[in-house]
Design goal:
Keywords: ATP-binding, Cytoplasm, Endoplasmic reticulum, Kinase, Membrane, Mitochondrion, Nucleotide-binding, Nucleus, Phosphoprotein, Serine/threonine-protein kinase, Transferase, Transmembrane, Transmembrane helix. One of its GO terms (molecular function) is protein serine/threonine kinase activity. The chain is α+β, with helices and mostly antiparallel strands. It has three domains: 103 residues, Phosphorylase Kinase, domain 1 (2-Layer Sandwich), CATH 3.30.200.20; 327 residues, Transferase(Phosphotransferase) domain 1 (Transferase(Phosphotransferase), domain 1, Orthogonal Bundle), CATH 1.10.510; 35 residues. The chain contains 18 helices and eleven strands. Helix 4 runs antiparallel to helix 6 and helix 12 runs antiparallel to helix 15.
């Protein structure tokens, strides 16, 4: 069969196709015939139908067919991903190699072109899946901590596979995560219409910013590289997943009020990553230590660096507990954010142990100034021994690197979380728009840290500032950088006061 040509890119938006009639028979490129069932949904560019093979009709359809006009691009991109990187045999071999119980990539059964009313349609036959996580999130608001961490581990399994096959997904979000149709304990990453081949034939794309292509993807989750118009790489997928984990745990992200201003969203994400782990711990202090550490390692990756997926999985599951069935709680249950299920372990002790492990890995014996060079030293040592097959090792390209900052109050924040009661920081409002609200049993829990620039809560009053200044022994707990800031601003205020007095005297 001759190679299919990529449809031309057009400036106008892709149009939804005119629906095909139920019962129409479609012939795929391998000679299999499929009967269209009823239409069950539509995406941004195409329609989705139930489908049956003509030789095995079944009332309970196990397949779906995605349909678009032939000139549309997203289904073509998704089709090429499956043909190059996600054949059934390749997935089975990977599952056996990695000793997985399953891999959350929907199975691909065939594709073809059909005609209807003078228009050409491209179609793709896929495994039927169940409900997407966005619908569950809309109903429940947040997910249990154990569920969030398990979702992260399952997505890391998928990302490791597609990254090893030279692709990135680029649009990880709850709407693209679907539960299994016959096995709802399994979760699948679907919709590869925005997938991108970051390393064709083993040659990694070079880092190059292009403002004209900036802010691509789903704005609340897309990576900083995408905001800058840089071609997506493996670190982009990991960063996007980190934002999703934080959203599922807390019900909201710090920049969700500014989604109409992509530059403001980019700035808020930059500030959150620069101020890790304090930024995440302050936004969702209970149960967020794993996500804070995960984002640290994702942030510190070079543009073309291979992630240590096993280490990232260990961050999300530090005790190595076996993965159980996915549990999606009601709104009331989700407020507690319990630790992973283990009847023999007290939830508070388990959380404390995880925080201790994070603290040891992040700080250990190194000083605060050494963090930027050694926070993920273990990851880089492993990568030195383990190069991906087919991907040559090379020095990182010159890039506009993300700003690195010292931890300063990292240990202080972690100790505060460890010693506080395990209470969720996310209070859900009666409507579907969840506004995280900070409340602590210990009122000084985070008063020692500077408020991150992305966190604009105006609840700090003059009375609270006075109490902070009068706290005994506070000065000795501050880092040298914070002390120098106090000296600097104090001298500046005194100098300005003297200038004002002199001006008033001579006037």
């Amino acid at each position: 069969m001759p190679a299919e040509v990529m449809p031309p890119r057009k400036n106008e938006k892709y149009k939804l196709p005119v629906p095909l009639p139920e019962g129409q028979v479609l012939d795929d490129t391998e000679g299999k015939q499929w009967i269209l069932g009823k239409m069950i949904g539509s995406g941004g560019f195409g329609l989705i139908y139930l489908a049956f093979p003509t030789n095995k009709p079944d009332k309970d359809a196990r397949h779906v067919i995605k349909v678009e006009y032939q000139e549309n691009g997203p289904l073509f991109s998704e089709l090429k991903f499956y043909q190059r990187a996600a054949k059934k045999d390749s997935i089975k071999k990977w599952i056996a190699l990695k000793q997985l119980d399953y891999l959350g990539i929907p199975l691909f059964y065939g594709s073809g072109i059909t005609e209807f009313k003078g228009r050409s349609y491209r179609f793709m036959v896929m495994e039927r899946l169940g409900i997407d996580l966005q619908k569950i999130s809309d109903q429940n608001g947040t997910f249990k901590k154990s569920t969030v961490l398990q979702l992260g581990i399952r997505m890391l399994d998928v990302l490791e596979y597609i990254h090893e096959n030279e692709y990135v997904h680029g649009d990880i979000k709850a709407a693209n995560l679907l539960l299994g149709y016959r096995n709802p304990d399994r979760v699948y990453l679907a919709d590869y219409g925005l997938s991108y081949r970051y390393c064709p034939s083993g040659n990694h794309k070079q880092y190059q910013e292009n403002p004209r292509k900036g802010h691509n993807g789903t704005i609340e989750f897309t990576s900083l590289d995408a905001h800058k118009g840089v071609a997506l790489s493996r670190r982009s997928d990991l960063e996007i997943l980190g934002y999703c984990l934080l959203r599922w745990l807390c019900g909201k992200l710090p920049w969700e009020r500014n989604l109409k201003d992509p530059v403001a969203v980019q700035t808020a994400k930059t500030n959150l990553l620069d101020e890790l782990p304090e930024s995440v711990l302050k936004w969702a202090p209970s149960g967020s230590s794993e996500i804070a550490q995960y984002l640290l390692c994702a942030r510190d990756l070079a543009y073309d660096e291979k992630p240590n997926y096993q280490m990232l999985r260990k961050i999300l599951n530090p005790d190595g507990m076996p993965l159980g069935p996915l549990e999606f709680s009601t709104k009331e249950e989700s407020l507690n954010m319990p630790a992973p299920n283990n009847p023999k372990v007290d939830s508070r002790k388990a959380t404390t142990k995880q925080v201790n492990q994070m603290q040891n890995r992040l700080i250990g014996k190194q000083g605060p100034s050494e963090r930027s060079a050694e926070s993920c030293a273990a990851r880089r040592r492993v990568q030195g021994e383990e190069e991906p097959s087919g991907l040559p090792s090379r020095d990182p390209p010159q890039e506009s690197t993300r700003r690195r900052q010292k931890y300063c109050e990292s240990q202080e924040c972690l100790n505060a979380v460890k010693n506080s009661p395990q209470i969720s920081s996310c209070v859900q409002l009666p409507n579907s728009f969840y506004e995280p609200h900070q409340y602590f049993t210990s009122p000084d829990m985070f008063s020692k840290s500077r408020s991150p620039s992305w966190y604009t809560d105006a609840s700090t009053t003059d009375m609270e500032v006075t109490e902070l200044e009068s706290s005994t022994g506070l000065w000795h707990t501050l880092s040298e950088e914070t002390k120098s800031d106090v000296y600097y601003y104090g001298i500046t205020i005194v100098f300005l006061f003297i200038l004002v007095c002199l001006a008033l005297y001579f006037l």
